[in-house]
Design a protein that fits this description.
The chain is of the alpha+beta class. It contains 5 helices and 4 strands. It has a 4-stranded antiparallel β-sheet with strand order 1-2-3-4, with no helix packed on it.
C-alpha cells in the first residue's frame, strides 16, 4: 500500500498477485488524473493495521486509512511462499460496478484473446 501511496506502481506490482497487475495499471491511470493536492493527501495518509486474520493461503488485513477516514479490508494471498495483496477494481474504486456480462477475472493480462468475449451477451457480434 505504501508503494501505491507514493505512486510507485512498478514497486506495487512486486507486492501484488499476478491477477492484480491489471488493476494496478488502471489505478495508475486514475492516479495520473489527480491534482498535486490529492496526491499529497494520499501520500501523507497514515495506515494503521486494526485487525488481521489468516486462514491457510489467504488472509485479510483491516487498516484504518487516515486520508479516507475509514477502515479498509485488504485481501492477501500466498504466492510462492510470499504474501501478496489481491486487488480488484471494486477494492480500489468502491463505487465501481462492472458492466453486465463482463467477468473482471477475464481482464487479467493474457486472459482475453478475443475482444468479442468482453461484450455483454445482449450485444450481437458480427
Amino acid at each position: 500500500m505504501h508503494a501505491i501511496q507514493e505512486s510507485n506502481f512498478e514497486r506495487a506490482k512486486e507486492y501484488a498477485t499476478k491477477e492484480s497487475q491489471q488493476v494496478i495499471l488502471l489505478y495508475s491511470i486514475f492516479d495520473g488524473k489527480r491534482n498535486e493536492n490529492e496526491r499529497e493527501k494520499i501520500k501523507n495518509a497514515k495506515l494503521e493495521v486494526v485487525d488481521h486474520a489468516e486462514e491457510g493461503d489467504k488472509a485479510t488485513v483491516t487498516i484504518l486509512n487516515s486520508s479516507a477516514k475509514q477502515q479498509e479490508t485488504l485481501q492477501l494471498v500466498k504466492e510462492s511462499g510470499n504474501w501478496k495483496i489481491s486487488l480488484t477494481l471494486e477494492s480500489i474504486l468502491p463505487t465501481y460496478v462492472a458492466p453486465p456480462g463482463i467477468d473482471m477475472k477475464s481482464m487479467a493480462p493474457g486472459a482475453v484473446t478475443d475482444s468479442s468475449s468482453m461484450l455483454p451477451d445482449s450485444i450481437p457480434v458480427q
